[in-house]
Amino acid sequence: YLLMRDGRLQIRDPRDGSLLAEWRYPAFNGFTLSPRGNLLAVGAEDDTIQLWNFTQATLNDRLPGAGSHPAFSPDGMQLAAGSQDGRVLLWNLIDLTVVRGNSSHHDLVEDVAFSADGSILYSVSVDSRVRFGEVRIWRSKNGYQFTRMSLPQIM
Questions:
Q1: Beta strand 28-33 with 39-44: parallel, antiparallel or unpaired?
Q2: How confident is the model at residue 78 (pLDDT cuts 50, 70, 90)?
Q3: 82 and 68 in contact (C-beta within 8 Å)?
Q4: What is the tens place of the pLDDT at every residue in 79-136?
Q5: Which of 13, 33, 88, 136 could disulfide-pair with 148, CB 3.0 to 4.6 Å?
Q6: Beta-bridge partner residues of 19
Q7: Shortest CA distance to 21 belongs to which of 42, 47, 46?
Q8: Does the pLDDT at position 14 exceed 80?
Q9: Are 117 and 78 in contact (CB under 8 A)?
Q10: Per-residue pLDDT tens for 17-41?
Q11: Which residues fall within 8 angstroms of residue 64, CB to CB, at 6 or more apart?
């Protein structure tokens, strides 16, 4: 089972409660369960996404290049995450290939999210150079950006 307390994210064995894995904030940058509840994606401080088989509590893979606030598509077939250097990566979870990697934001990608039908991917970043936020909007099928919006001054 998954436990979050005192700035720590833990995976514990449901049979006996023993600790299987632990991350201490800020050693992780967000986590999410897949829609079916079988995969756990953890954004790690080394700019990777750790993919865990949640039902067996085993580490399946590490996806390099982006480790900030992962998000599963509603059908569980894609995973998106941001990076500290402004990239947004989108993976196909069938073969763990990168559908698209974009270097579009200037700073840390704060969050990514899919639309309810999974066709659109949103990414948000705060650009510290000009002190405004920006949302970029992508087609999740091919990873191409089709628009962006600036947010009012937020800092």
A1: antiparallel
A2: very high
A3: yes
A4: 999 888 888 888 999 999 988 766 676 677 788 899 999 998 888 887 655 556 777 7
A5: 136
A6: 12
A7: 42
A8: no
A9: no
A10: 888 877 776 667 788 889 998 898 9
A11: 47, 48
Dihedral angle, C-alpha 7, 81, 116, 141, nearest 10 °: -170
Sheet with 2-5: strands ordered across: 2-5, 8-12, 19-24
Q: How many residues does the chain have?
A: 155
For residues 93 and 57, the model is more confident at 93
Amino acid found at 72: F
Partnered with residue 42 across adjacent β-strands are 31, 50
| 77 CB-side CA count, 13 A | 7
- Give DSSP secondary structure letters for 31-56: EEE-TTSSEEEEEETTTEEEEEETTT
d(CA 108, CA 122): 14
The two tokens of residue 40 are 């756990």
Token pair for residue 124?
């948000």
Residue 104 near residue 125 (C-beta atoms within 8 A): no
pLDDT at 116: 94
End-to-end CA distance of the chain: 37
